[in-house]
Amino acid sequence: xxxxxxxxxxxxxxxxxxxxxxxxxxxxxxxxxxxxxxxxxxxxxxxxxxxxxxxxxxxxxxxxxxxxxxxxxxxxxxxxxxxxxxxxxxxxxxxxxxxxxxxxxxxxxxxxxxxxxxxxxxxxxxxxxxxxxxxxxxxxxxxxxxxxxxxxxxxxxxxxxxxxxxxxxxxxxxxxxxxxxxxxxxxxxxxxxxxxxxxxxxxxxxxxxxxxxxxxxxxxxxxxxxxxxxxxxxxxxxxxxxxxxxxxxxxxxxxxxxxxxxxxxxxxxxxxxxxxxxxxxxxxxxxxxxxxxxxxxxxxxxxxxxxxxxxxxxxxxxxxxxxxxxxxxxxxxxxxxxxxxxxxxxxxxxxxxxxxxxxxxxxxxxxxxxxxxxxxxxxxxxxxxxxxxxxxxxxxxxxxxxxxxxxxxxxxxxxxxxxxxxxxxxxxxxxxxxxxxxxxxxxxxxxxxxxxxxxxxxxxxxxxxxxxxxxxxxxxxxxxxxxxxxxxxxxxxxxxx
Length: 497
What we know:
By secondary structure, the protein is α/β, with parallel strands linked by helices. It has 17 helices and 11 strands. It has helices spanning 3-18, 24-44, 59-63, 67-81, 86-92, 102-113, 123-139, 152-162, 179-191, 197-205, 215-227, 298-309, 323-326, 330-341, 405-411, 437-442, 467-494; strands at 170-172, 208-212, 241-243, 255-260, 269-273, 279-283, 310-321, 342-349, 362-369, 380-385, 432-436.
């Protein structure tokens, strides 16, 4: 059975369970619990593998019952496993049964999951099937799950130019459903068809680390890795994902590669009661000794965190919104330190309309961490503008990996010194050009929100979008402006008397 067939089969059951009041995220969550139990049971047959699932609360105990007894036992099982350790605890933390109808639970357990040997399925098939479910879940805009799902064509291009290698450690400090870690894993496996036992174990247990703040999303990410053959099932082993706040402290651990898309949106804040008993929001400024500047801007803090957790000589690619490139105050201070202490060599301006969160204008910063020196580590930034005069939408005209082929070609993987611009006075439509460090440092507030293409420059090629695309872009711009106004309003509320 192909991954597409499995996705269709799994998703078909979702339509049945929606009548029982389950949302898409609820369904994927319940599937995760059941798939883990089934795979743990399959791996325990004829081996000494200890998953940590206690006797009497395993897969066999579920399939031995029917009807209301099975339904009640499933609820008891989730409550017991929620107190587990290691991968068990990560998967089942705060787990509860949200399937109210015993007959529909039985359909899921006995007719769908129990009939497949999930461990025997190729990791690519079952892993891609689960990825397909997560993507369908992200497309349900009502659930908000799309904010944890970075477009896979963008991820694949980022991984291809960063080139994670066998034996390296790769981290995503805002891993969501683990798209970056899985793309890095796939890239390494494609580069090395044969691995010895030590290499295989390193790739499965030590190469990848993720951190995710939201427990329910950490659960999905852990299961996504597990279905792709990454991470342990055992209770006593260390999961590849940690459910915590990346920004709280310097973790101490350093990595060869960091690939991440930190959460966009409002600044870090908390709701408190003031002296009059009224609710007000106060910004949470992150203060860390390893940070260059203290700010409540989450994206600026993640940028500083990524620099911290990189090994010297390590490589990073981080998705950031436009404001990280031009915001004053702490933003300017951080940009100047990045240029000084890291080789910030490449900036990719992403098109609008590619993220499930509407109105997002984002970029990818590529930089290498360098030893401290009096001279700036950055000599020039090469900028690729894939936004101006490039129009995509989520459904009608989605972005494809081929849309990034020219960027990957211009990047010159492994030979960045041979880069050549495609822009010139004679070629004003070129999307690729370099800006020297002296010019960047002279810009007002060290503004790195760089663009040069004229929106009208390509009219002669009849490359203007159709009215529906223009309308969609206008909506995105208005929603982005509204989001920024909401942030301003919240900040004003937090400082009122």
